[in-house]
Amino acid sequence: MIKLKKTYLLLAFVLGLSGFAVAQSAAKPDIPLVRVYFHEKIDSTQKLIRKLDGKNDEFFKPADNDDLNNRLDKALTERVDSIQDAIESSKITDNNDKIRYLRGLNEALQRFYIGFKYQTVKSPVLLEVVSGYKNCMVLDQKKQSIFPEIKKHSYDAGDILVNAYAFNDNEGLQASKDFLTLKVCHEHPDRMMTILSKNPDFPYTDSLIVVAAHTRPDDLYTYAAAYNKFAERIRNSSDSLVQLIVRISKMPTGRMFFPFLDNLSNNKISFDEVETALKDDEKYYSLLVKTEIDYADRVRRRDTPLSIIALRRKLADKASEVYVNVINGLHESPDNIRFRKIVNLSPQELYYLAVMTEDVIYTSSYTHGVYPFIWKKMKTGKGGDSLLLSVKFDYFRKWVKMAANYNTLDDFLKRMDKGNAQILMKAFVNGLEKSATLEDAVDVADSYASINDKAIQSLVLNQVQNNLQQSKQTANKKAEDIYDILNTLFLSIDSSNHIDLSEKLGIPPIYFMPNKDMRDAKGRIIIQQFFYGDEDGRTFFPMFVNSFRNGNWKMQSNNQWVTISSTKGVPVTIYTNKPLDEKQGLDAQAQGALNQYLYDNDLNPTMVIHRGHSYWLPSTLDQLSDSARLVMLGSCGAYQNLSKVLQICPTAQIISSKQTGAGNINQPMINTIIDELRQGKDLNWPVMWKRFGVLFNHGDLFNDYVPPYRNLGAVFIMAYQKEVMNEED
Fold it and tell me: Between residues 345 and 499, which one has the greater pLDDT?
């Protein structure tokens, strides 16, 4: 309305009029000067919202959907203006009431502005807020409750409306707030305890405490141990399960008992039995495994046990703490010494060591220890069928994925009857949409390229295509999105299909990296390389430095890092820390000092290289710059960490190794990539990978390296996130 106001204020001045109500147009109501300020505040908020789409124009179009954009812009302009007009032309005689509605409208818009700016509400909420405010205002003018209107809207829109100043005295305000509290507790059970702790006198608190005991027992346990009014409400509950949780929360070792909550509540296990197991880490781990298998069998029968999340967390912790960290730490010792700790474990206990420690188990701990030890312990036949049956197929997708990534899948499937192996691989790709996260789907995507048996590969592809057709027939959009992306990814593996994943999936290029995208605002390409101070680092660091001793490069060095800069072509600078003594933590200090130097000098790496064993990789990822466009993980087992990289750099291209990263592969590959960048060339991955294949004779070590366009798990994540964003818009 700002343009109209300016026009008529100017007209008023020209006509020499004063002390009158400013007319906006012949068809619009007069606005007394006493209320102009409140209209201008609304206009100002409208302008702020318009800017949220990042476009310097007079429209609000934050989505990729033209129809939605048009409706949003119309709501923000025409419909908000019409509410202002309605307030002015209404039969309300009290000036304060009109100000109250104008102020409330501005508050509602401001709350949307803040929510959308900080990504706590989505753009379509604006449509609800504008229409809802108008309807609530009509009800309020009639002295009627706004509750019927609030019930129609989403929580986000309703929360904005009930907090608008205009409805502070409405008779339906408290009922509306109570309804929204129940609504958010139902829609976001993870927030229920936080909400109730802030509103302990909420009318439905006691009922929701019982609900939480059955659905969020971990959260209830945390709050029950506190000393406040809400904790008192929990402790005073008459529900038997709530009282059991309260009892455990009071115990000094309550967290160690909590994984067994379901069996304790059903008298399948006693407190004394858990207490006895707690005296020995190995017995406690065995009890956790036994309970997990019991719970997994119930889950298979669609009966979700209480505290299963706590059980799995504790199982993962103990698997790492008691066993895997030990055998990882002895990686330089002979196998008979290194794996002594796991000699007495059962096949099932070894199975859970693998699937519960995917992110921490070393490649050699899996391939030389856990995996072969399972088969030494199996007493029946081939063993593959028996193993999965004995654990009730718990985490079987994770098991198959890890076997594929560590090149043991073919061996595992050969340990099963052929028919059962086919059934297993079909199950591997079925029901992916039922998982609350994308982890299962990413596991399937990651595994496909590692399946060497063509018959199994074909079976998996056919099952994905069958599931895609079924999802279309049943209008299951989530399933359709998942299987459509997987189908595209798997077909792209065969070059004869001529599928461009970037074009097909609408994601950033993965077949090439434009040289210009690697440059910063000053035209420089900044590369950071992480070395570690173990024997490997000290061996390969001089080789790396010496490979740049030619006329194309110059070097500078200080006590902690080396700087290598191009003298010809594109300005490329490589910063690499020295592999100082890792036992004294000097390598970590050097990396920290280099990170600080890069930050202080506005040097943002667009290529990051990890050099070292897989056990150093978490340290590199902790320091990974979000400016990275190309990340090279030439380390053992690095293929397991793609999702971590993408959390930091959502569109990064990744080169990784599925298993053993080798120095004699890393160095020539790094030199070739960097020199292509120096010459101003784009990185054409299919062409370069073909060249690398010839250079390394397509050996086993090279074949474990995965180029960006074959990192199917990473591509799946990017494609699915893009699809979800499009649907939300």
Answer: 345
Q: Could you tell me the two tokens for 199?
A: 């509103």
Q: Return the number of other C-beta atoms located less than 10 Å from residue 214's C-beta.
A: 13
**520 and 455, same structural domain?**
no
Q: Is residue 283 part of a domain?
A: no
Q: Tokens at residue 633, please?
A: 């993980």
User: What pLDDT score does 16 carry?
Assistant: 38
What's the pLDDT score for residue 5?
A: 43
Residue type, 608: V
In this model, does residue 245 exceed pLDDT 80? yes
Spatial contact of 594 and 577, defined as CB atoms under 8 Å apart: yes
Q: Which of 186, 215, 246 is where one domain is finished?
A: 186
Range of the domain at 50: 28-186
Closest CA to 401 of 437, 354, 434: 354
Q: What is the dihedral of CA 161, 164, 166, 170, to 10 degrees?
A: 60
**106 in the same domain as 48:** yes
pLDDT digits over 405-428, tens only? 888 998 999 999 889 999 999 999
Tell me the mean pLDDT in the region 115-138. 94
**What whole-number distance in Å separates Cα of residue 52 and Cα of residue 466?**
42
Q: Is residue 410 domain-shared with residue 501, that is, in the same domain?
A: yes
H/E segment holding residue 155: helix 155-162
**Residues in a beta bridge with 609:** 529, 632
Residues 531 and 461 in one domain: no
472 and 559 fall within a common domain: no
Specify if 337 maps to a domain. Answer: yes
Residue 174 structure tokens:
């408290």
Which of 486, 505, 524 is a domain's end point?
505
Which residues contact residue 681 at a Cβ distance below 8 angstroms, ignoring those fewer than 6 apart? Answer: 515
CA atoms lying within 13 Å on the CB side of residue 618 = 6
CA separation, residue 91 to residues 42, 141, 400, 415, 426 (Å): 21, 10, 71, 83, 69
Number of domains comprising the chain = 3
One domain for residues 570 and 648: yes
